[in-house]
Design goal:
The structure is a homodimer of 346-residue chains. In chain A, helix 1 packs across helix 4, helix 5 runs parallel beside helix 14 and helix 8 runs antiparallel to helix 10. Chain A has 3 domains: 75 residues, Arc Repressor Mutant, subunit A (Orthogonal Bundle); 156 residues, GAF domain (Beta-Lactamase); 98 residues, 2-Layer Sandwich (Enolase-like, domain 1). In chain A, strand 5 and strand 6 form a beta hairpin. In chain A, 49% of the residues lie in helices and 18% in strands. In chain A, the strands form 3 sheets. Chain A has a 5-stranded antiparallel β-sheet. Chain A has a 3-stranded antiparallel β-sheet with strand order 4-5-6, with helices on one face. A two-stranded antiparallel sheet of chain A has the order 1-2. The model of chain A has no long low-confidence stretch (mean pLDDT 89). Chains A and B meet through strand 4, strand 5, strand 6, helix 12 and helix 14 of A and strand 4, strand 5, strand 6, helix 12 and helix 14 of B. The structure holds a DNA duplex (30 and 30 nucleotides).
Chain lengths: 346, 346
DNA sequence: TTTAGCACTTGAACGAGTCGAGTGCTAAAA
DNA sequence: TTTTAGCACTCGACTCGTTCAAGTGCTAAA
């Protein structure tokens, strides 16, 4: 456990370092502490803090820099009341237009707004659609053997995909299959729809058409697309600004990571419903050792929970960023509820 | 006009510099020229070349580097027969799958293939759709006030967009409008459809519905989307590798440019149907002074002409890159024709 | 016209010296 | 016992001079 003075010193070090980027020495600290003590005393205290692993030197006679553990302690114990600027709240509210036609549009826009505010890179995920139920398949002929398949869920998600009908496929057959699917699978959760599509449906379809494989692949394809979770990434290029490492290869690797949804989702998984901060090596991913990740869920009542996340440098203004995330998750939840109410309640 | 020996020297300088990135001195050149001359002679010749503005020194005692004018001369007069490696041709052919459901997919894939091959950044634009004709509007109700509007052109382009019907809008009214539009506008070129939508159609619609504005905006919106030209960008992140300038601000500005289609299209406009090379300052855009841009059209017969382009460093292997572009435009045209034939000829 | 030779220029790499900001430690003061 | 003043020490950043290699331009001879 730290003494009051040690806390003060650690806090001052983090504040100073995150805002200037320079290691902090005993003299500067002496001028910035609430109680006046000499630089020598501070040096002694810093020696203790270093022994505890909270701060570190870059070289033997440099000032101190917070370590991962130090940031951790700061975030857990020394954070300001996360006061969110009213102007920021106003910006958030005004940035959402009202002309959203899809949940995805809200989510994508969210990532951009949040990255503009924080100047970092952000991720957003819409509420889990796992429990969403199939409300209908549609098939729209486009002429010339082309067909657009559309799947709609009761949570308002729409996924469409074009495909081409094999020449040997009969349109009537296709229509009956669609009817069958709508009859049998409407109202079921997407997960179950997927399994049914692989199990009993092929069996039943046999009666209607002679080559059912191609069609089912299409449904499979579009369905798994609809039920797959895709992160929207905002402010990708901000990374260039706050990454310390400007080596092209490292950057390319990082950007590769941002494009791989599977890898992202393991990294961004929020542990609980609070605002979660992972610092440097705590984000078990070598590429992200110099970054901090703030993740949070947002709760859209019966429509499920989504995720927002901010990726910034370890030396980020934690208080401000956490405040922004906190304000943002609320506003986002509100926007989504608005959206759902506008279109689905009556 | 350059003497044979001057040509040889310029050629050797460009070759050497593009492959090593190091300024080239008289000694190295002496070893690499077809006819054996002393380094002193070469120094004299280089002095002439420099006076003509074809090469330049980085500092008073450094080797020479090609200038923009020098590259220009090289590209115009000294290029190898652009022999394309058979293996590259094979790669191009194999990289196109056959499971394309949309022209856009082919175009997007093209940008990726070409950027992988060149290791540079590439742009592709599908054949001009200006002359494409509207073959139909579709309107698919998705439930809960939501509707998906689909527009299909005779060139097989499909554009869809969700929107929400205002509560005061009558579905029957909407249907009659759709019918009207299909009746009146099918078969017309998209450009004309756009103007008609703004001129006589609103007048006619008045009879069918009391608040025509919202609907027409939607049509307008989706139509201009369909007829807008959008470049696909491949290998964005390759830019990190070949840009000399690693300054985050410059990079961000560059990436900003890649996302602005309007600005791109002024830059990428190919002057004619040959393969066009613009070097450094010739690409009238300050941001691109250290880059070279190779643009070319590809010709898909009656379906129009599209554009492909490669953005690389001024010191790129011109011969190889031009060869690749040349082979690629042919294969791409073939792929598109295949696609069209597969789906539109009977 | 070409070439050998030579004086000259330049950036890169290296070491020595200085400076400033920081440290740890000791011994005296509180 | 805690705090502080003082001091020797360390290290990176910077400057300066030196050396080295790779170039150059120019001159005079071949």
């Amino acid at each position: 456990m730290l003494t009051k003075r040690q806390s003060d010193i650690l806090q001052a070090i983090v504040r100073h370092y995150t805002s200037t980027g320079q290691p902090v020495g005993s003299k500067v600290l002496a001028d910035n502490l609430p109680e006046r003590v000499s630089s020598a005393t501070i040096r002694n205290e810093m020696a203790s803090l270093e022994e505890m692993g909270l701060i570190a030197k870059e070289h033997s006679s440099s000032g101190r820099v917070p370590s991962t553990v130090g940031y951790r302690y700061y975030v857990d114990n020394l954070l300001d009341q996360q006061a969110v600027h009213e102007s920021d709240v106003a910006i958030i509210q005004n940035s959402f237009g009202q002309d959203f036609n899809k949940i995805d549009e809200i989510v994508a826009r969210s990532a951009d707004i949040l990255s503009d505010l924080t100047t970092f890179t952000t991720f957003t995920l819409k509420p889990e659609q796992k429990m969403a139920r199939l409300s209908g398949f549609r098939l729209v002929p486009l002429g010339n053997q082309q067909v657009m398949a559309i799947i709609v869920t009761d949570s308002g998600d729409v996924e469409s995909q074009n495909f081409t009908i094999p020449r040997d496929m009969n349109t009537d057959e296709l229509e009956s299959v669609i009817r069958l699917i709508n009859d049998q699978l409407s109202g079921l959760p997407l997960t179950e729809v997927l399994t049914r599509l692989q199990q009993d449906i092929p069996f039943k379809i046999k009666d209607y058409m002679h080559s059912p494989n191609g069609v089912l692949d299409i449904f499979d394809n579009i369905l798994s697309h609809a039920s797959s979770e895709r992160f929207f990434v905002g402010g990708k290029m901000n990374l260039l600004g706050f990454s310390h490492n400007h080596d092209p290869n490292t950057l390319q690797a990082l950007y590769g990571l941002l494009d791989q949804n599977e890898r992202l989702s393991t990294v961004l998984d929020p542990l609980d419903d609070s605002i979660n901060v992972r610092i440097g090596s705590e984000i078990s991913n070598e590429l992200l050792d110099d970054f901090s990740l703030i993740t949070a869920t947002y709760d859209v009542d019966q429509y499920g929970k989504g995720i927002i996340a901010v990726l910034g440098p370890t030396r980020m203004p934690y208080s401000r960023t956490i405040g922004l995330v906190s304000a943002f998750r609320q506003e986002l939840a509100k926007q989504m509820l608005d959206y759902y109410h506008r279109y689905y309640d009556q």
